[in-house]
Amino acid sequence: MKPTTRLLIFLMALPTACTNDNLDELSLDPGPCDTTAVTYSATVRPILAANCYSCHSSADPSGGVVLDTHAGVSQPAGSGKLLGVISHAPGFVPMPQSGGKLSDCNITKIRQWIEAGAPDN
Fold first, then answer.
1. Burial (CB count within 10 angstroms: exposed 0-12, middle 13-18, buried 19+), residue 44
2. I want to staple 94 with a disulfide (CB 3.0 to 4.6 A). Which of 87, 88, 103, 120 is the partner?
3. Quick one: CA dihedral 100, 103, 104, 110, positive or negative?
């Protein structure tokens, strides 16, 4: 079969390749941000583990900042530094440095936890 024939067959198949896909499943919108039950152990710690522990763990804390314990994260949470760096606020070094900004939803969850007094729950 000639390369042009293969290309033509491929191009003809494209319009029908996704006809059974649900538009909602293809959307990049993660949906509403659920902040109904934000806790340190179930919400904040997993966000920090996925985005911060590689540089800010007790074993080798970059800049002396430890985020893998409640005691360690409480200080920057209480001072406003944690929220400043993760929201990329002016005057703060944007974190995480090795990746993109946290999602707005994750920032909202951390903000809510801090506003509740950053409890060890």
1. buried
2. 88
3. negative
